[in-house]
Amino acid sequence: MPQIGWFELLIIVVVAILVIGPKDFPIVLKKIGTWTRSIKKYFSDVQSNLNEITNIEDNKTTTAKEKKNIDKKNVKKKNEDKQ
Questions:
Q1: Using CA atoms, how far apart are residues 31 and 25, in angstroms rounded to an integer?
Q2: How far apart are CA 54 and CA 33, in angstroms?
Q3: For the chain, what is the mean pLDDT?
Q4: How confident is the model at residue 63 (pLDDT cuts 50, 70, 90)?
């Protein structure tokens, strides 16, 4: 992945100011910030939903294992009671 240094960043900013204009440059930066924030929020929501789904699946497998353990304990108790 290419890395951008301070000099390259300075060149990009100067070219952007020349192309967009110094008057509209802050407005464009604000729009880019808003878009970035909304994209980050979207991916954060997707990640939290995936985490919820995986936690639900983990809980289902855990409860299934717990049910098996409880059933084994009940069988042992019944066998002990019969003897």
A1: 10
A2: 32
A3: 82
A4: low
Residue 5 lies in a domain: no
75 is a domain residue = yes
Give the domain extent around 37.
27-82
Measured CA to CA, the distance from residue 34 to residue 47 in angstroms comes to: 20
Per-residue pLDDT, 51: 87
Q: What share of the chain is helix, strand, coil (3-state, %, to 5)?
A: 90, 0, 10
How many CA atoms are closer than 13 Å to the CA of 20, on its beta-carbon side? 14
Q: Per the domain annotation, does 76 fall within a domain? A: yes
Question: Is residue 6 one of the residues assigned to a domain?
Answer: no
- Counting the structural domains of the chain, the total is 1
Q: Report whether 34 contacts 25 (CB < 8 A).
A: no
